[in-house]
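All the exercises in this workshop are built on plain-text protein records. The record below serves as our worked example for the rest of this section.
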Amino acid sequence: MKTWLALCALLGVAASPCMAQTIAKDETTINNYIRNGHLVGDCVTIDFAYDADLSGKKLDAVQKRLLAKGVSQAKLNTLIVQAEAQGDSYDFSAEMNDAIQPDDMAASLKAMQAVFGTLQNRCDALAADPDFANVITRAGYQLTNGPKSYLGQTLYQAQTGNPHKYVMAGMMYSAGVTPDPDHVLEFNAYMAGAEAGDASSADLLASNYLGGVGTTENDVQAEKWAVIADNLGSSDALPLVDERITPAQKTQGQALAQAWLKAHGR
C-alpha cells in the first residue's frame, strides 16, 4: 500500500483519487483477460500465437496488485465471476458451420470467407491491445504478406504441410470467392494437391481432365489421375472415367499412373 501512496505522491496526485484510478485500471485488465478468454482460442485457429504462461503470470500479477491496494479477495472473486458472465460469446467454429448451406456451395464458401474476415478483425484488435502485449502475437500465415483471408490461409496451410487443403482452395476458386470463378486456378490447386499425394485432389483433378474444366479435356490424363486417386484411397472418379474412355486410352493412362506411383514410392 505504501508503494502506491509513494507513486501517487511522485505523480503529484492526491492519494485517494490516484489509488482509485490504478484499481480501476487493474480491474479493467482482469475483465479484459477473462472476457476474451474464448476469443483467444479462436484466434489461435487462424495463426495467432498465445503464450498461456505469460498470460497466467500477467493475470496473477494484476490480482496481487489489487490485493496489495486493499481490494479484498471476496471482491476480486466477484470481479472474476462477473467477467466470466460477460465473456465474449463469439464462436468461430459455430459461425463457420452456420455459414454452410448444403444446397449452395458457392454461397457457403463466400459466407465462410466473410466469417474469417470478422474473426481476423477481432484478433487484430486483440493483438493490438496493450493488455495482451506479447501474449497474443502473429504467427504462421499471419506473418506472411498474403491477404488475410480464409482462401489465403487455406493456401498457406496447403503449401506448408497439409496438401489436402488444396481441395478447399480449388473449391473456393470454383465457387468464385476471388470474387469470380477461376477454373484455371481451381485446376492448378487440384494439381498441386495431387502431385503432393493427396487422394481427394487427385480424384478431383481426374474429373477436371475428364470434363475439360480449367484445362484442355484429356481422357488419358483423367485415367492417370483417377487410377492414382484410387491407389491413394479415393475412387469416385475412376468408374466415371473408365466408362467413357477407349481401351487404348485406359492402357495409356494406367501406364502413366503406375510410373507416377513408382516414382513416388506408392
Q: What stands out?
A: Residues 26 and 62 are 6 Å apart (CA to CA). The radius of gyration is 27 Å. Residues 149-263 form a domain with the Serine Threonine Protein Phosphatase 5, Tetratricopeptide repeat fold (CATH 1.25.40.10).
